[in-house]
Amino acid sequence: MKYHEAGHAVVAHLVGCTLIRVSARPNGAELGHTEQSRPRGRYRHFDALTVTYAGHAATAIRNGTPPPLLDTRAPWPQVIDGDFLVADSIVKRMHRRINDGEDVKRRCRVRAQRLLSMPAHWRAVEAIVTGLSEHNVLDGSEAHRIITASIARGL
Ligand SMILES: [Zn+2]
Fold this sequence. Notes:
Elements: H1 2-14, E1 19-23, E2 33-36, H2 44-62, H3 82-93, H4 98-117, H5 119-135, E3 137-139, H6 140-153
Antiparallel strand pairs: 1-2, 1-3
Helix pairs in contact: 1-2, 1-5, 2-3, 2-4, 5-6
């Protein structure tokens, strides 16, 4: 679950969102929660969808079961959870035809996975997980600081 939230946080950072809070503390039905501002600019729906899928992408990478990157038709876990419902509502707001929507979803899932697979970005995921293990909740500015420092370490 920490990896799931860290995945959301790192991809949100990468697409230019401002993180508000990253939490691994269970709250009602949710096991954790990442809050961020909406992405800005032209690709915001595409970016928001990528952030939404980043939790599952991080968990799959962590478990060693990511769908093959090059096959965008590879199946993803058919789970119905909050993230997938959010994804559906984002796609509806994109005013696209339904079959086009499926293509956009696949592309954003692959994009989330590709971003998180980059060594510098995965290091940032691990650093957020460490932070959550120590504090359970990170405020947004602390999360940005951790992510920026982890990515810079590889340069
Ligand atoms: Zn999630």
